[in-house]
TrEMBL record:
Reaction catalysed by this enzyme: hydroxymethylbilane = uroporphyrinogen III + H2O
Domain Tetrapyrrole biosynthesis uroporphyrinogen III synthase: 25-250
GO biological process, one term: uroporphyrinogen III biosynthetic process
Keywords on record: Lyase, Porphyrin biosynthesis
Matches recorded under SUPFAM superfamilies: HemD-like (SSF69618)
InterPro entries noted in UniProt: 4pyrrol_syn_uPrphyn_synt_sf, 4pyrrol_synth_uPrphyn_synth, UROS/Hem4
Protein name: Uroporphyrinogen-III synthase
Protein source organism: Marinobacter confluentis
GO terms of molecular function: uroporphyrinogen-III synthase activity
Family statement drawn from the similarity comment of this UniProt entry: Belongs to the uroporphyrinogen-III synthase family.
Pfam families attached to this UniProt entry: HEM4
Function per UniProt: Catalyzes cyclization of the linear tetrapyrrole, hydroxymethylbilane, to the macrocyclic uroporphyrinogen III.
Organism domain of life: Bacteria
Length: 268
């Protein structure tokens, strides 16, 4: 993809709805490109600390052949648990990250991590040859309390014995009305970044209380599946970056805003 003209972001209003601290890091990248940015998280997370079964799973992690982290946040919590209970990382495990960002967290800890060859989705991860045939092999999926069923169901169909390890909870933030009005109606964003279906749903629900119509904003979403979800909710324009790296998100938005025709549709 040709380098997009970042001047197309100059003074454009960008609202970032992903959780902190990732939101602040992405906001800085947009500000460096000249955009005006507000951060309004539409999803919050907290580690689960009151479930004794987590410690049991971590202590038994050497019994698994494959360990999959579904997000950078899940990978970070997993690394913290490993650092506490495994002074020497267990051998013989194949480690996976759903996407380059997740894999990078595990790799930084010294784990030889596999990731999708192309893409950052569960579907892309499932295309790896190591996960094609699993004859009663034990697979641990590290994620939040709720998540898509695609990974566990598909791996089970392929013969794996799958165990889920929820390490965190997700919930909608409790923004007061003044905060919502200021960030949505007052700021009147041209671009909104929502990098999960849950984030998008929370934004749509809470924005209904502001009287602001988001349908003409450029909605940045992670995958086509969420773009379809946005279109069904009345959003006219969506943008699917090539990856979820901050630089890729900024570049995708700049490319879209630089187009002479910014009619509804996706950009990749």
């Amino acid at each position: 993809m040709a380098t997009p003209p970042l001047e197309s972001l100059e003074r454009r209003r960008v609202l970032i709805c992903r959780p902190r601290p990732e939101a602040e890091r992405l906001a800085e990248a947009f500000r460096n490109a000249g955009a005006e940015v507000r951060v309004l998280p539409m999803l919050e997370r907290e580690p689960i600390t009151d479930d004794p079964s987590i410690r049991t799973r971590i202590l038994d992690i050497d019994q698994f052949s494959h360990v999959i982290a579904v997000s950078p946040y899940a990978a970070g919590l997993l690394v913290d648990w490993l650092d506490t209970w495994w002074p020497q990382t267990p051998s013989g495990i194949l480690w996976y990250g759903v996407g380059a960002g997740t894999a990078a967290v595990l790799s930084a800890y010294g784990l030889n991590t596999r990731q999708p060859i192309d893409g950052h989705t569960s579907e892309a991860l499932l295309a790896l040859p190591e996960l094609a045939q699993l004859n009663h092999e034990k697979v641990l999926i590290v994620r939040g309390e709720q998540g898509r069923d695609l990974l566990p169901e598909t791996l089970t169909d392929r013969g794996a014995n799958v165990t889920l390890l929820p390490l965190y909870r997700r919930f909608a933030p409790d923004h007061d009305q003044a905060t919502l009005e200021g960030a949505i109606s007052g700021f009147d964003p041209e671009v909104v970044v929502t990098l999960s279906g849950e984030t998008l749903n929370n934004l749509i629900s809470l924005s209904n209380n502001t009287g602001h119509n988001l349908e003409h904003c450029l909605m940045v979403v992670p995958v086509e599946r969420i773009a379809d979800q946005a279109h069904k909710a009345g959003i006219k324009r969506t943008c699917v970056p090539e990856s979820l790296a901050d630089s890729a998100i900024v570049a995708a938005v700049a490319q879209q805003l630089a187009r002479p025709d910014v009619s509804s549709g996706n950009t990749k």
